[in-house]
Amino acid sequence: MEFDAAPSRQAPPGRLAGRWVPWLVIGLWVALAAVMVPLSGKLSSVTTDRAVDTLPASAESTKVAVLEDSLPGGEDNTFVFVYHRAGGMTGADRTAVGRHYDTLAKRYPPRAVAAEDDDGPPTRLSTDGEAMMFTLDVSTTYGGPEAIVGPLRDAAKDRPAGLELEVTGPAAVDGDMDAVFDGIDLQVFLTTVIVVTVLLILTYRSPVLWFIPLVVVGAAALTAMATVYLLVKGFGIVVNDQNSALLTILVFGVGTDYALLLIARYRETLHHHENVRVAMVHALRGAAPAIVASAATVAAGLLCLLVADLNSTSGLGPIGAAGILCALLAMLTLFPAVLVVLGRRIFWPAIPRFSTAAAEKPGLWGRLGTAISRRRWVATLGSLGVLGVLAIGLTGNTGALREQDQFLSAPESVTGFTVLRQHFPELGGQPMTVFTRPAYQERVLDIVKGTPGVAVAIPGQTVGGWTDISVFPTDAPDTVAEYETIKRVRTAVHAVTGAQAIVGGPSAENLDTEVTTGRDEKLVIPLVLVVVLIVLGLLLRAIVAPLVLMATVIVSFAAAFGGSVFIFDTILGFKGIDYAVPLLAFLFLVALGVDYNIFLASRAREETVRLGTGRGMLKALSATGGVITSAGVVLAATFAVLTTLPLVMLIEVGFLVAFGVLLDALLVRSVLVPALTLLIGRRIWWPSRLSRPDAEPPNRRQPLADDEELALQR
């Protein structure tokens, strides 16, 4: 099809419309940005990490937290001051501790003092004489834990030389955790921008081309943050700091992947079409189905999280899906429009020239395909062997990670628990809170005191028809032994008919979170597999191919998890795997890992129509190998940004997903899937027409209709 060498003096209406479409799209995005960018900055104002918000309403610890919040002083923050001196506390030490308590109690009037009885002293001396402690409940009117813990520590600095102090307790842990997340959104955003910028410059080796996808993905990220803010305000979705960080990573990762795929197809079509708008339409027709299928797979997988009971997990579903859809919209509208407006010169210095006789070079990926074709069994068994060896790592330490072990460098609140347990073994665990009806207080108190694993049980106040009992377990916080004690206490008090007793507290909240996550895994994982299979089936119009692709992704996930566990346990020395990591990693690796198979398989199906299954797969591998590898490296690098944060959970998610993505992009998609396709042959497309031996591929693909072609001319 030939193009006009020069435009006529008066352009036809179709040509004029085609010329202004990109500018119209850019204008609409500018208008959208004017509205959404101010809203994006408000996302941090609606994030929450309170257990009462993240746990399901049905959890027993949630009921305790809600009841505490409804009572006078129930929202107080509890801090524990632990003073200690090797060789024993001196008289000056004891005086200083008492002075500190009096000063702080006047500054922050407490609701109650944790002592063995109401008439006991506010401070307590350890039996070994080397430590003293007191508990302070500070009203939330003075601020949250992060705002209070610093001034409390500063107020106790005036003490005799050699007297050590750790400020710990549930509120201090929360304050140190909040400090980790302080400014995390900006840190993740800036680090991700730097990483993506470097990788795009290395990929395109162009002084200008890298800037366009970066700006467009940035616009998508800000739009996504604003959209999530509106979802929170409109539907009450729970967004915690971790999910907010994951949103940024997702949008930049998948958005850049889509940009790489579209640019590769656009560069290819520019060799065959002189008009850039015609070339872009052909590029979109070739790349958009795979990009849309990829986005649909990830978004559908994320929305499966809506069935989860844990609010922080279910909230990630619409949050992540909104981010994916914003990235998809930007990459299929704004990005093509900007590329068309800027023309071929955006690729400088390697500008693709129009040439109908452009020769295709076999390249690295063509040679790899030839090698796989000659030794398909070796490629298949070798790939499975590598994945199998990595999966052996699953026999390592996959136990649950304690909250105190979440920090890469233990803060004062965590070391304080160790000191407290050393000198006050009877108060070594985090306190449980038991609520019961006042008429049953004595009976419940006696039962709790007689429960194995309970060190101390202290009756509290009676307010609003409820009596609270503070219970100190003998075991360290968030250990299996402490969790067993919580279960025994719950079983014992539930047996008291009419008491309506419920058990909560920080460790009980962590226990309920772990139990809820385990239940969610059993529900969400099968649902994700079914949904992804359906999307693959619709895209490839086959049954065998989706099953094969899904099987390779599952094996890849097991290998990535096993290899990561080995790194976490043997090299990094982590104390376990955070309860949220397996589900999040499975979701991301299945949904995102299938992405690369989608890019490869959709191109293979397209080429199979012309060339047949074997040659079609090799052609697809040769054509998409470079861009998919680049996309995998970029996505892995964006998730690897999480490993720069000082929280073990985010490090584990970031490393596991990055490692898994690289496995999918470099081994599974590059070697295993092509080898399996060559072994299975045309039956891979069963039951579609392509699986039948008598199916004759057409001689050529359908071009644009003449009137469409003319409408895109200048």
Write the layout of secondary structure elements.
Blueprint lengths: L12 H28 L10 H4 L5 H11 L6 E8 L6 H17 L16 E2 L5 E8 L6 H11 L8 E5 L1 H12 L2 H21 L6 H25 L5 H30 L5 H28 L7 H32 L20 H12 L1 H16 L20 H12 L8 E5 L4 H9 L4 E10 L2 E8 L6 H15 L7 E3 L1 H35 L3 H28 L9 H31 L1 H28 L7 H33 L25 H6 L3
Antiparallel strand pairs: 1-3, 1-4, 2-3, 5-7, 5-8, 6-7
Main location: membrane
Pfam family, one: MMPL
Subcellular location: Cell membrane
CATH fold naming of the largest domain: Multidrug efflux transporter AcrB transmembrane fold
How many structural units, i.e. domains? 4
Mean of residue pLDDT?
82
Ends apart, CA distance between termini: 15 Å
CATH class of the largest domain: Mainly Alpha
The low-confidence parts are 1-17, 112-119, 699-714
What do we call the CATH homologous superfamily of the largest domain? Multidrug efflux transporter AcrB transmembrane domain
Give the CATH architecture of the largest domain: Up-down Bundle
The largest sheet, given as strand count, sense and whether it forms a barrel, is: 4 strands, antiparallel
**Secondary-structure element pattern, one letter each:** HHHEHEEHEHHHHHHHHHEHEEHEHHHHHH
Structural class of the secondary structure composition? alpha+beta
Biggest sheet strand line-up: 2-3-1-4
Helix content: 55-70%
